[in-house]
Amino acid sequence: MNDFTRVLKHPKAVLLGLLNQLIFLPIIGFTLLYFIPSSPEIAVGIVLLSACPGGPTSNLLSLLAKADTALSVTLTAITSIATIFTIPFIVNFGLVHFAGEGEHVQLDILNTIGQMFAIVILPMALGMFIKSKKPQFAFKMDRPIRLISVILLALIILGIVLKEKENIVDYFAQAGILALLLNGCTMILGFLTAKALKLRENQAVTISLESGIQNGTMALAISGTLLGNVAFGIAPAVYSLLMYITGGVVVLLALKNKKPV
After folding, report:
1. Domain residue limits at 74
2. How far apart are CA 184 and CA 240, in angstroms?
3. HSE on the CB side for 182, CA within 13 Å?
4. Sorting pLDDT into bands at 50, 70 and 90, what band is 10?
5. Do 88 and 112 form a contact (C-beta atoms < 8 A)?
6. Domain-located, residue 8
7. Domain assignment of residue 93, yes or no
8. In a domain, 261, yes or no
């Protein structure tokens, strides 16, 4: 609790993290798409990733890197709420500019906000309630829920591969380059901006991870349900695999450079 109080009392790191995730991330995503040709399906997938918040993976990686976990959780919580309102606008903008389907496939703003609220806020509130009332039960269920999440993600990716098997090699080649660049550029920018503002090393690592590790599962859910096109989920699927590799590299570098307190 003291860690969270400290984060809120000194909000510079939080504000910088939000700037990187809510402003710089979409700008980098759109910039990459303007300069690197890709299919409409891959382009929309990258837009989806650029619009999504950080996920629980960034919190876990921050913990493993011995970074500022309280800052990581704070940023994930705030962006999860903020992106409920920003995702419909960013995705619709991407559909118009990259998919050429703006008049045919668009997210209904109010309906999407309502569905995103149900997907994000209600589970978050339920989790917090259970953790406050039954902390031991919440602790016991943490590992099984993570395992179920990984299995579901694997099944979704397998479904996409089978559905798009005719184009999958080309799609994965396009998506891999863009996903890796999006992930790498945002993590590097997050770290550099944190160092430029003279934040602590552990805060810089956290902002780097929060800026580059996005909620690919949410992007997959939006592509398959709200947009009704699993091909839009190819880039998020590739990204969801790559981010563990790049995130692991950041963790190893952070631990290697860790200075004794």
Report:
1. 2-256
2. 13
3. 38
4. low
5. yes
6. yes
7. yes
8. no
At residue 102, the pLDDT reads 45
For residue 225, what is the enclosing H or E element? none
Instruction: Give the chain's domain count.
Output: 1
- Residue 103 has φ and ψ, to the nearest 5°, of -85, -15
Question: Which pTM was predicted?
Answer: 0.79
116-170 pLDDT per residue, tens? 666 666 666 666 666 666 667 656 666 666 666 556 656 666 665 566 556 556 6
Q: Is residue 13 part of a domain?
A: yes
Mean pLDDT over 241-247 rounds to 86
pLDDT tens digits for 19-67?
Answer: 999 999 999 999 999 999 888 889 999 999 999 888 788 888 888 888 8
Distance CA 142, CA 68 (A): 21
148 — phi, psi (to 5°)?
A: -60, -40
- CATH no. for residue 215? 1.20.1530.20
- Largest pairwise CA distance in the chain: 57
Q: Any idea how long the chain is?
A: 261
Q: Which residue has the tokens 């991330």?
A: 25
> What pLDDT score does 208 carry?
94
Tokens of 186: 């945002």
Which residues, including other chains, have CB under 8 Å from residue 102's CB and lie 6 or more apart? 92, 95, 96
Spatial separation of the C-alpha atoms in residues 237 and 220, rounded to whole Å: 7
List b or e across 135-163, with b for residues whose CB sees 16 or more CB atoms inside 10 angstroms.
Answer: eeebeeeeeeeeeeeeeebeebbeebeee
Nearest Cα to Cα of residue 186 among 14, 18, 21 = 21
Give the C-alpha separation, 7 to 197, whole Å. 16
* 3-class SS of residue 260: coil
Average pLDDT, the chain: 79
